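User: Please run a holo structure prediction.
Assistant: Happy to. Please share the sequence and the ligand.
User: Here you go; the ligand is glutathione.
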Amino acid sequence: MNLAMITIYGVHRSRASRNIWLAHELGIPFKLVPVIQHYRLKEPIPADVVHTKSPSFLKVNPNGHIPTLEDDGLVLHESLAINLYLAKKHGGPLAPSNVGEDGLMGMWSLWAATEVEAHSLSIAQNGPTASAIDALRAPFAVLQEALPNGFLVGDRFTVADINVAEVVRYADGATELFRGAPRVKAWFEACRARPAYRKMWDAREKEPA
Ligand SMILES: N[C@@H](CCC(=O)N[C@@H](CS)C(=O)NCC(=O)O)C(=O)O
């Protein structure tokens, strides 16, 4: 297995948090190359600040989005795909143990991105509007049913829990959704209590808002 240090482009206050959390869970070192969202910067942007529209970063990720992972010449975009890749590469309990679990972890990651993220992000950006809350009632009910033993896949904490929890996190302000789904609330709190999450979050809090 290639164990050269990976590079993550991004900042903690972005979806790179997902990859940083996972890297801490796996105990793998990484180099964080700071690239900030262009929309967070005020003009004039200092020449030494690399952002999502910088020509140098667009060569790395032509989508102009963070995060991007570089791993010994392999370049990957999409935070949730990066996590699935890193978990599988490093193995252990966070990774799928068979092709069925692999399917389930992919399913939950795509589910989070397609069924939840637009609405949860809207709550993070605009607050808990009635329309965003309504749109998330069904996905929260699905999640509630999927968590009888407190984890999404197998009887253990996996990359699927990280990927879904990081997307659900944006809906944190919608307390009524969590009140109506006690298993989701307990699972989410357990995810956020993990030392690797706290390590990511503490570093995030130290970054300028
Ligand atoms: N689906 C992508 C979305 C990436 C994305 O939109 N990242 C945001 C930061 S969290 C970004 O780079 N925004 C910068 C911009 O839109 O200019 C992923 O999960 O990696």
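The two ends are 38 Å apart (CA to CA).
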